[in-house]
Each structure stands twice: as structure tokens, then as C-alpha cells.
From TrEMBL:
Subcellular location: Cell membrane; Membrane
Membrane-topology descriptor: Multi-pass membrane protein
Annotated Gene Ontology cellular component terms: plasma membrane
InterPro entries (UniProt xref): Ammonium/urea_transptr, Ammonium_transpt, Ammonium_transpt_CS, NH4_transpt_AmtB-like_dom
Lineage of source species: Eukaryota, Viridiplantae, Streptophyta, Embryophyta, Tracheophyta
Primary gene name: amt1_8
Keywords, ordered alphabetically: Ammonia transport, Membrane, Transmembrane, Transmembrane helix, Transport
Domain Ammonium transporter AmtB-like stretches: 16-418
Family: Belongs to the ammonia transporter channel (TC 1.A.11.2) family.
Entries under Pfam families matching the protein: Ammonium_transp
Protein name: Ammonium transporter
Residue ranges of the TM segments: 15-36, 48-68, 105-123, 135-157, 169-191, 203-223, 235-255, 264-283, 289-307, 319-340, 368-389
Protein source organism: Anthurium amnicola
Length: 456
């Protein structure tokens, strides 16, 4: 057999689409940072962008060392992979198991972006009180012990969820439920922000929230569309349902807020759009456009209601990560059990039994199993990681109260987000103080003159 006939037949169009999708998902990571930054107070704005952005290099290092291998090695177990592909060994030009038209190196770098954005989502609950060094260590350890394990369950050829024919197209459990559960554990272990329940914690910059939403919505086309692993009809369908669910989710949340405030909230629309995107993620390659409307509305409504859980259960999830990502991911998983359509999956050759609409009711049980397992595992292991880290010298998780009062921008980075604005405000304050000091003697002199005239 000639050497030419042994060469895999890769499709350049599929490779180009997957590399483009990789860039799309990368762009989502600073998008998360801007979204979180706008929702926080100004003294913590820059640090939240940096915390999220630093997930890229930390997870890139972890993914290269052993993350990809633990998640996707071809000879792994039901629970976790092995080190066959550590340091990207044997990850070159062989076709990936996901699609014969793609080399494995393309699959590896694409999935690395998923691994990077997941801890970026989770750390939002610890906003305004987490120290940077322990946070970076946590990202590395959490990616190894939580994300890689759950990704192996769901997407590896040998993972237990894959073997029972469970469905998760683009990360309902590995990305959203795992990050939401981790966020809940993080905020519980850290404790509430100082002033919680007394001070008013309002978003300081809705423009940043909108900018972050734009990056996220745009990037999600690569997140869900790229999970078809090719430039094909299924990718187009995934993008279509993604855009539809985001639109209906944003409007649903905004209208729910309108009934209370009689205002069309920009923050409400952005939150609902992200909730709709989260909800459609596990189903984006399995459902029709009309069904995606239901996913969007369900995401917007259920996640809006879930925000109230932090008040009912009295925990301080600063940026509502659990309500949007865990609840939205669970909703998407369960709805997928009902509406998974085998004809949509067949658009690029995948064969499934479908959901309830195809007479396969047991699929709901599989989807619930994934949701419960991912939620319980991520929460418990995250809490354990954080508890152990907090006992290690120099890895204390939380800032001191006086540092928290100053803000993470100054205490952790030494750089405020709004240096020029701070200078202007300080200058105005000094001018006002100076005028008061110079005016007071003049006022007293006038009083003295008036008194002299009166008594003379």
C-alpha cells in the first residue's frame, strides 16, 4: 500500500471551521470577565477581568501537562483518563475519534478553550473577596480534579455517561453544572462579603455587562456550532437554535423584571440571554428551532426565579453564577431528555435513540443522572479543595477585612480600573475642601465687621 493511501483524508473546510470556533470560544473568556466586572463594584472591576483572563494561561499549562490526556485519552477508564497523551504526546495528525475529517491536535486545542472558560465562570461567586494567588492555584487543581473528570464521563469514548448513551452536545454538565456547583461551594466556603445584607451591592457599569454579553453571544456560535466538529448542516442548526434561545431568554428575563419594576432592564436582558444560552447548550445539536424557543424561555424564567435562592438559603453568590449556570444547565439537560430529536443528530451521521418525542422515555433518567452526578461531584470536591487550601500557609483564600474594604484592584493588583476617573474625583474633592478652608475665615471676618457696625 502506498504512503499516500495511508494518509488520513482531512477536510480543510472542517479544520478551518474548528480553528475559527476555537477563536470564538477564546473570546468568550474576556467576555465573562467584562460581564462580571460590570456587575461588581468599581473597586473590584479590573481584578475580575484579570481573574477570568488568567484562566487562559493557567488552564493552557494544565491542559498541556495532563488535562487533555485525563479528559480524552483513548484508553481511559469509565471515570478518568490516563497519561497516554500527557504533554500532548501522540497528539498529532491522527484523526480524532469525534470526526475522521479532523486531526486530533485540532480537537485538543478546541476542547482546551472549554476547559479554560469553565473555571472562569465559577470564580464569579467569589468576587470582591478572593485573593489572587490562591485563586490561580485553585484553577489548576480544580481543572484537574473536577473538570477533567466530568469531561471524561460525558465526552470520552470510554466515559460512563457516554457508554449509557447519555446526551450532552456542548457542555451542559461539564461546563455549566460543574461551574455552577463549584461557584456555590466557593461562596459558601469563603463566607459573605463584609456589609452583605447592609450595604448596597449594585452593578457599577452596565456598559461592561453589555459588552461582555456581546462577546459571549458571539463566541457561543463557536461554542455550540463548533461542537458539531465540522462545517456541516448540524453546525448551522446548532447556531440557529443558539441564537433563538438567547433571544427568547433575554426577553423572558427582561419581561419578568418589568412586571416588578416597570422598567426594561438592560442587565435583565443580558442575564436572560446568557441563561438562554446556557439552557440550550447541552441540546444545541439535538433539537429543532421551534423547540429552542422553549429552551430560551425556560432558561430565562427558571434562572430568574433561581436568583432568589441566595436570599432564601442565605449565601452570597456575588454574581449569581449558581442561579444561571447550574440551574440553567440542569434545565437544559432535563428538557433535552424530552425533546432530543434523532433526525437532528443524524444531520452529521450521529445515531441516537432520541428523547420522549421519539418514544425513548428513559433518556430523561440518563439526563437526570448526569445532572445530579455532576452537581454533587463538583460541589463536594470543590469544597474539599478549598477547605484544604485554606489550611495551607500563604494560600488563605480570603482577603483581610481592611483589604476587602479597599478593593481587590488596589490590594491584589495595585492598579485601579479607573485611574483617570479616580484622579479627577480626588482633584474635585481637594478643590472643594480648599474652597471651604479659604471661605471660612472670610465668612468669619464678615461676621466680625457686621458685629462691629451693630454695636457701634
Amino acid at each position: 500500500m502506498s504512503e499516500t493511501s495511508q494518509t488520513p483524508k482531512f477536510k480543510e473546510g472542517d479544520i478551518a471551521w474548528m480553528l475559527t470556533s476555537t477563536a470564538f470560544v477564546w473570546l468568550m473568556i474576556p467576555g465573562v470577565g467584562y460581564f462580571y466586572s460590570g456587575m461588581a463594584r468599581s473597586k473590584n472591576a479590573l481584578s475580575l477581568i484579570m481573574f477570568c483572563f488568567l484562566c487562559v494561561p493557567v488552564v493552557a499549562m494544565q491542559w498541556f501537562i495532563w488535562g487533555y490526556s485525563l479528559s480524552f485519552s483513548r484508553t481511559g477508564s469509565l471515570f478518568i483518563g490516563n497519561l497516554r497523551n500527557a504533554f500532548f504526546m501522540n497528539v498529532r495528525g491522527e484523526p480524532t475519534l469525534k470526526a475522521e475529517s479532523l486531526p486530533e491536535i485540532v480537537h485538543a486545542i478546541y476542547q482546551g478553550m472549554f476547559a479554560a472558560i469553565t473555571p472562569a465562570l465559577a470564580i464569579g461567586s467569589a468576587a470582591e473577596r478572593a485573593r489572587m494567588l490562591p485563586l490561580l492555584v485553585f484553577i489548576f487543581v480544580w481543572s484537574t480534579l473536577v473538570y477533567d473528570v466530568i469531561a471524561c464521563w460525558i465526552w470520552s469514548a470510554n466515559g460512563w455517561y457516554k457508554t449509557i448513551e447519555g446526551l450532552d452536545f456542548a457542555g451542559g454538565t461539564p461546563v455549566h453544572i460543574s461551574s455552577g456547583a463549584a461557584a456555590l461551594a466557593y461562596c459558601v466556603v469563603l463566607g459573605k462579603r463584609h456589609g452583605h445584607g447592609r450595604d448596597e451591592f449594585k452593578p457599577h457599569n452596565i456598559v461592561n455587562v453589555i459588552l461582555g454579553t456581546i462577546f459571549l453571544w458571539f463566541g457561543w456560535f463557536g461554542f455550540n456550532g463548533g461542537s458539531a466538529f465540522g462545517a456541516n448542516t448540524r453546525a448551522a442548526m446548532a447556531i440557529m437554535v443558539t441564537n433563538t434561545a438567547a433571544s427568547f431568554g433575554g426577553l423572558a428575563w427582561m419581561l419578568m423584571d418589568y412586571r416588578l419594576e416597570r422598567k426594561f432592564s438592560a442587565l435583565g436582558f443580558c442575564s436572560g440571554a446568557v441563561a438562554g444560552l446556557v439552557c440550550i447548550t447541552p441540546a444545541s445539536g439535538y433539537v429543532t428551532p421551534p423547540v429552542s424557543v422553549l429552551f430560551g424561555i425556560a432558561g430565562g424564567v427558571l434562572c430568574n426565579l433561581a436568583v432568589k435562592l441566595k436570599h432564601i438559603l442565605d449565601f452570597d453568590d456575588a454574581l449569581d453564577v449558581f442561579a444561571v449556570h447550574a440551574v440553567g444547565g440542569i434545565a437544559g439537560n432535563v428538557l433535552l431528555g424530552f425533546f432530543a430529536d434523532k433526525d437532528i443528530a443524524a444531520l452529521n451521521g450521529e445515531v441516537i435513540h432520541g428523547g420522549v418525542i421519539d418514544g425513548h422515555g428513559i433518556q430523561i433518567g440518563y439526563q437526570l443522572a448526569s445532572s445530579v452526578a455532576g452537581l454533587a461531584y463538583s460541589f463536594s470536591i470543590t469544597a474539599l479543595i478549598l477547605y484544604v487550601m485554606d489550611k495551607i500557609p500563604y494560600l488563605k483564600l480570603r482577603m483581610e477585612p481592611e483589604d476587602e474594604e479597599i478593593g481587590t484592584d488596589e490590594t491584589e493588583l495595585g492598579e485601579p480600573a479607573y485611574y483617570f476617573l479616580d484622579r479627577v474625583v480626588t482633584s474635585i474633592q481637594l478643590q472643594i475642601a480648599s474652597k471651604i478652608m479659604t471661605t471660612s475665615p472670610q465668612t468669619q471676618q464678615l461676621h466680625n465687621q457686621t458685629d462691629h457696625l451693630h454695636y457701634s
